[in-house]
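Data deposition worksheet. Section B asks for the primary sequence of the deposited chain exactly as it was used as input, without tags or linkers unless they were present during the calculation. Section C holds the resulting structure in token form. Section D is free text for depositor observations; keep each observation to a single sentence. Incomplete worksheets are returned to the depositor.
Section A, Depositor: J.P.
Section B:
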Amino acid sequence: MPRADLVLLHAPSVYDFRQESILYGPVSDLVPSTPVFEMYPIGLTTIAEYLERSGFRVRIVNLAVRML
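Section C:
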């Protein structure tokens, strides 16, 4: 993978999510947590797409996944 010119970081909404108890919904047992279900803010993907059209190599990194 070529080096990125810019890395956009998608930070978790709660920094210490690993220490907090979270009430999961009823579907969480049925749907596996995989990268397919990762959702990014539309503005973040729009910025990345605009910069890529302008010739920059952009990457979005989900910090919550890296913190697990």
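Section D:
The beta strands are 6-10, 58-62.
The chain has one domain: 6-18+27-67.
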